[in-house]
Structure formats: C-alpha cells, structure tokens
Amino acid sequence: MIRPVIAGNWKMNKTIAEAVDFATRLREALGSRDDREVIIAPPFTALQAVAEALRGSPIRLAAQNLHEAEKGAYTGEVSAAMLSEAGCACVIVGHSERRTLFGEGNERINRKLQATLTEGLQPIFCVGETLAEREAGRMPAVIEGQLKEGLNHLTADDIGETVIAYEPVWAIGTGRTASPGQAQEVHRLIRDWLGQQYGAGRAAETAILYGGSVTPKNISELMTQPDINGALVGGASLDVATFMEIIQYQ
Ligand code: PEP
C-alpha cells in the first residue's frame, strides 16, 4: 500500500521570508499527521531557510531542478550535492516547463535522474504529452518514449527510489484537469510499462502522482483511481489553507 504523496511545486514564487512563513504555518497545520507524505519545492534561494523551518517535521523538501554535473564551469547551475547539503530530500526532474522553456530532452533528463540518484536524493520524474500529441493519438508513444529514454540505465533499485509524476502539458496551469478516467488510463499505462521493465512488484510499489490543475475540488475524485497515488500541485500549493485542503482530501 503506497502512502499518498502530495507535493507542491512553487515554481518561481515566494521570497525567502514568504517561504519560511509558509513552511512554518504548513508544519503547524499538518501537526503529527503522517498518513500523507507531504513535499514542498521552493525556489533554490529559499531551500536552506525552509529546511531549517522544517527541521524535525515530516514534511520533505524538494528542489525544482538540478544540473547533472558534480561541479565545474556551469554558470548559474546547482548540483545534486549542493541540494543535498541545503537540506533537500527530493528533486523534480523533467518538469514540462524545463522541457519546453529550457530545451531539456529525454537524454539530458536521464543524466539528471542519474545524478539525483547517485547523490541519494529522490527524483520526482515528470512525464506528459502535449495537447497536439494527444489529439494525434500519440499519447501512449510519447509517454513510453519519455519513460524509456528518461529511465535508461536505471536499475530496479533506482526505480524503487523514484516517484513518477504524470503531468499532461495541456492541464498544467490551464485550469483544465484531466478527467479521473483520462488520468487513470495513463497511470495504468505507466505502471504496466514499469512492470514489464522492472517486475510487477516494483511497479506496484512505485508512487505515480497526477499533476495538472489539481485543486481542493478535484483531488478526491482523482484519488479514487486505483493507480493514482498522489498529486504534484502547482498553483494551488502556494496558499497554506488551499494546500492543506488538498492534503486532507477524503
Ligand atoms: C505543475 O507545475 O507541476 C503543475 C501541476 O501546475 P498546476 O497545478 O498549476 O497546473
């Protein structure tokens, strides 16, 4: 049985002071509740301060991106070891905004996944098709291609450390959510693919999150689907009360 995972991706939002205030209030609101795994992903600048604010709490800290190299002449970039030192437990890898706005392809994402795992951090690996790909009937091929190339060289043990997020690009920040049935279809496809590659046991243990305009209104129905194990939340994770409503879905 996978403990539901609710992860908030803040993107390029919140100052250090705002991030610490959020983390402090979220921690208070969550109390000792531990039947949901809660993750927040602030911008790089706030990571260390938020890690301090969360010390001793079950809330886990994620970064939104990393560079795959250990160190060197990569101006503006941050390595896995740096994120680990700042207090991160997880890293979002392959978010669609990284793919489309920053030109990250599957091969680069694969190197980032390997760097994340080598450092002992948990990747939250994002996959998802565009509307044009879906309408052209290419959704299964696109998702399988992202999985195959993104997870290249990873072992079954690596998969055991990895969370996967299905985020249809047409649903991110658009207010247009995949229906629970549409999301379940893709989550099933992902789990079946993992089963073929790494064995049914490993596939059954892998948390597969849905992301794309998740709100307090739609979370419960999404979570009734058998292969949806949680949510990666963007816009609705920026307000403590709204994010708590999502965490406390029934
Ligand atoms: C995201 O950025 O991962 C996301 C799902 O955003 P939103 O919830 O705002 O659609």
Low-confidence stretches: none
Structural class: alpha/beta
Distance between the termini: 17 Å
Which small-molecule ligands are present, each listed once?
phosphoenolpyruvate
The percent of residues in helical segments reads 40-55%
Strand proportion, as a percent range, falls in 5-15%
Helix-strand topology string:
EHEHEHEHHEHHHEHHEHEH
Structural Rg: 17 Å
Q: How would you sum up the global shape? A: globular
Oligomeric state of the chains present here: single chain
Question: How would a crystallographer describe the biggest sheet?
Answer: 8 strands, parallel, barrel
Account of the 3D structure:
With 250 residues, the protein is an alpha/beta fold. Helix content is 44%, strand content 14%. The protein is built from 12 helices and 8 strands. Helix 1 runs parallel beside helix 2, helix 5 crosses helix 7 and helix 7 packs across helix 9. The protein starts with a strand and ends with a helix. The mean pLDDT is 97. Bound molecules: phosphoenolpyruvate. Phosphoenolpyruvate (PEP) binds next to strand 8.
Brief description of this entry?
With 250 residues, the chain is α/β, with parallel strands linked by helices. It is built from twelve helices and eight strands. An eight-stranded parallel beta barrel has the order 1-2-3-4-5-6-7-8, surrounded by five helices.
